[in-house]
Amino acid sequence: MKISTRNAFKGKVKQIVPGAVNMEVTLEVAPGLDVTAIMPKSSAQDLDIFEGQIAYALIKSSDVLLAVD
User: Fold this and answer.
1) Is pLDDT above 70 for 5?
2) How far apart are the C-alpha atoms of 41 and 33, rounded to whole Å?
């Protein structure tokens, strides 16, 4: 996977909290350091995200995005 975002943090999906429209996905990117992304439920389902999966928090000045391989 190649991306142009410079701030990409690899981590493990620690928790997924589903909501009616959005899902809250928390990654542990370092011991004791979590990053949480809120995304549309359909986007999370398209990524097939599950707890324990390796994913990347992609951080731009105005956004935090989530990517998986």
Assistant:
1) no
2) 24
Spatial strand order of the sheet with 33-40 comes to: 33-40, 22-30, 7-18, 54-59, 64-67
pTM for this entry: 0.79
Contact 16, 25 (CB under 8 A): yes
Return d(Cα 7, Cα 60) in angstroms, integer: 7
Q: What is the rounded CA–CA span in Å between residue 67 and residue 69?
A: 7
SS3 61: coil
6: Cβ contacts below 8 Å, ≥ 6 apart = none
One-letter amino acid of 23: M
Asked if residue 13 lies in contact with residue 57, where contact means CB atoms within 8 angstroms, the answer is: no
